[in-house]
Amino acid sequence: MKKECKDCGAELTIPQDSMVGEIITCPDCGTDFEILSKNQDTVEMREAESVGEDWGQ
Amino acid sequence: MIRICIIYDKLRFEEKKIYSKIKEKGLDATLVDGKSITFDTESSKRDPVFGDIILQRVISYTRGLHLTYCLEQMGLPIVNSYNVSEICGNKLITSMILKKNDVPTPKTTFAFSTESARECMKNLGYPLVVKPIIGSWGRGVYQIKDQSMAEMLLDTRQDNDNSYSRIYYLQELIDRPSRDIRCIVIGDEIAASVYRYSSENEWRTNVAVGGRTEEAPLTSELQEIVLKASNAIGGGILGVDLMEDKARGYLVHEVNNTVEFRGASAVCKSDIAGAMTDYLLKMSTK
User: Fold this and answer.
1) How many contacts (CB atoms, under 8 Å) link A and B?
2) What is the ipTM of this complex?
3) What is the per-residue pLDDT across B147-177, written as a single tens digit (0 to 9) for each?
């Protein structure tokens, strides 16, 4: 599935097995998008939270 | 049917893997975005979304810690517990707990202001390692080679508004091979042990900064130290990281709460996600 980057207009490829909550990174501008919902034909995304200092494992 | 709830805030390889493994084993799994959960003081554990047991896999330490507290207060079984999450997420507390429980760990000095950190570093001498007490993936971890580097670090830290930046974690530099060891502990078992080699022109071994992994033999000595570290922290599903000091042997330097295992699963035959599922199943019926 293809989607347009809201920031720079580049084409984003959404992998078939991607799931809600996964992050898709724009190959051109590097903006991260989080998948909000996904079905057969449509995918809804929003800009992901930026990496916090307390992020990790 | 047992229902396992995975709470995440950014879905990584690991959460997807555990989710599909739970399904594969014929159990019920739900993925819940931690960013969308709300609680109030009247919240009860009857909310079916949380299932029979919760696996907390939130990437933000602060968010994960507070969510865990709320869920635990509601009487819900959660892996890992609040206490374990707090200890693992804060390197100062981890070091203190390891030492208190006689787990071999690098000598570490703590300072609570710029001035006292400067004094400590002068007294300790160089090189030494500075780490933020909260944070991961090797970020903010520096090898300080001399006084001028120390001054640069102190300046940077002083300009940072984060209150944790004024707490200094100063660790001896360990004479070790260019690798460390990551062991994934699940309950009383070690599901995987890998070497993490640092990449070229990099001394840190984190996979996030390009380190490569290779299966490591699980010797009885390694096993003993890793399980001792896990028990000291409080147990659960943990990533225990060790260095091989050329003089003193294994030293545990970190224990991870929401352990990442993409690197380990690529080189180990063991079914890490499967072992996690079995552990959650066991804990849900306790």
Assistant:
1) 59
2) 0.83
3) 999 999 999 998 888 889 999 999 999 999 9
